[in-house]
Amino acid sequence: MDYDPIASLESVGYLEREASFLYLVAVHSGYFLRRQYYRFAGRKGGTLASQLLKKAAHRQHIHVIECGQGWHIYHLTSKPVYEALGRRDSQNRRIKGDAHIKSRLMVLDFILANLDANLLEDEAGKIDFFTTQCGVGSELLPRSYAGKLMYFSDGFPILVSNSGIPRFTFFDEGQVTATRFERFLKQYQPLFAALGEFELIYLADTESSSARAAGIFNRFLPADRLRGVTSTTPLGVERFLEYLAASQRYDTIGGVSSARDLEVLREGEHLYTSLEHRALQAAWNIQSTSADRIRQRFLQKSLRATFSTVVLPYRYPTDAMYHRPLPEDGCETIPQTTGETVQSGDKP
Q1: For the chain (length 348 residues), average pLDDT per consecutive 10?
Q2: Which of 31, 108, 130, 306 is deepest in the core (most CB within 10 A)?
Q3: Under a CB-based contact definition with an 8 Å cutoff, are residues 230 and 271 in contact?
């Protein structure tokens, strides 16, 4: 950025501490709890949170979600705030489902616990790190389409260790099945394979979810499956050999011979595009190399993956939420609130 986003919020009356916290909320979550601001400020209570909430409510920057029993979730919705922070198109200002809100609150807790870490802050920073510093092709990055091409659309934080090892995160907001985690692993597999070494941190708020996740990860990336996984063969050397054979059959008969060949060829069009791939394919076609030689070339390398789980010791009041409807532009007029409403807690 060529400007100071914190100063943009200070200019409308927020203290530096308040502006810095709202910046973290805008970038990583969109939602926050009173206790999270106290944690950021290094306080256990007092009037700090009430002062921030009164300012934000007066300026119509937040939407209050009532959860019952004195709980509130605060949603930073103001379009001008996101524009001032350089986040004009952020999805964080949009109202989401209860599960999504809980996962974003969990993300914010993780960020607050890792403020000193080297963090890849947004989509642009993640793309730059993996393509420029790690040399990974953009076609191997996790992506999705929602009106436009989006990379790392889950929005989960990615840290980088002091030795340059990426540390990915996945947040389980209490899913009944493991489908979403399995889909996450599948989506990230090409990137994991291209990196050669990475860490994955699974965060949940129950022990049972963490135990289940460890079993899924071990099944997804067993030791024998990791052999031969490199940046050149991101899905393993056997998959590359399958592509070479399918490609040769295609050239021989002038078409595909099976549905599996078609699948492998379409996949390979995006994965095997480098000069090294072309050289190996040419050598394969004239039989100057063999499957065993190619295996020997890549099986000397292996993927080093570290998996860990973290149970967050917090309660998230998303099971009893009441949403006030917002206009389409998201710039709602917050109803007049009494001091008691704004000051009533969202318990730790």
Answers
A1: 74 89 93 95 86 92 86 92 85 86 95 94 92 91 86 94 94 84 91 88 88 85 61 85 94 89 93 93 94 82 82 83 45 34 40
A2: 31
A3: no
